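ingest -> validate -> predict -> emit
validate: passed (alphabet ok, no gaps, 251 aa)
predict: started
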Amino acid sequence: MVIDYPAGAQEPQLRTLWHLAFGDSEGFIAGFFAGGYSPRRCRCAVENGNVAAALYWFDAEFRGQKFAYLYAVATHPDFRNRGLCRALMADTMQCLAGLGYDGALLMPQDVGLREMYARMGFRDCCTVSEFSCDARAAVAVRPVSPAEFARLRREYLPPDGVIQEGANLSYLKSYASFYAGEDFLLTAAPEGGSLTGMELLGNADAAPGILGALGFSHGRFRTPGATLPGAMFRPLRAGTHAPGYFGLVFD
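emit:
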């Protein structure tokens, strides 16, 4: 078993592994490889020429510290229950530290994964809140470019929030949209006839009016708050501070 950066010829296997692990459509996977993927931000475990496990990361920043947001950690069904995920994560932590990263973040999708990553040295560090609502009279909403969104987001982020720009926003743009209003900033995508507000910063009370403006009758919104557990954090060098809010989670 060899763990390393992927070779160009292995990209089709990475795409196949992604589909097997997460069930996403070819279009969604293509969006990631077009806007979010870099072979220098990916580690994979290969056995006899076959990609057995892989993970990716995005660069992020918190108070001048360089963080890696680990994403899409997956093991091929034929190679599960062999400790590959733990080996791949250990290799990646060593690799990131050598590249000058100060810490790593990830967002487990269930309690079992949260417990697994805790055994790998990650700890809970962030919280979020979520709520659902129905549409009301429209408020003023305008689409914004990724560049304007990045500028505004720095203004709206809580003081303990993580900055996510560059490839983060390029990837999000493949399946979500960025909006701004008088006192809010929103990242959102349609889902089954309703709107999923992946991150709503600023005035959360504007949510019903946002739905009215965008033509949705119902929506679900994620905001800064303390209702639900959020990201987990692992320091990669002494003195690294943990953030309190990590908002752009690529569900």
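The chain is about 30% helix and 35% strand.
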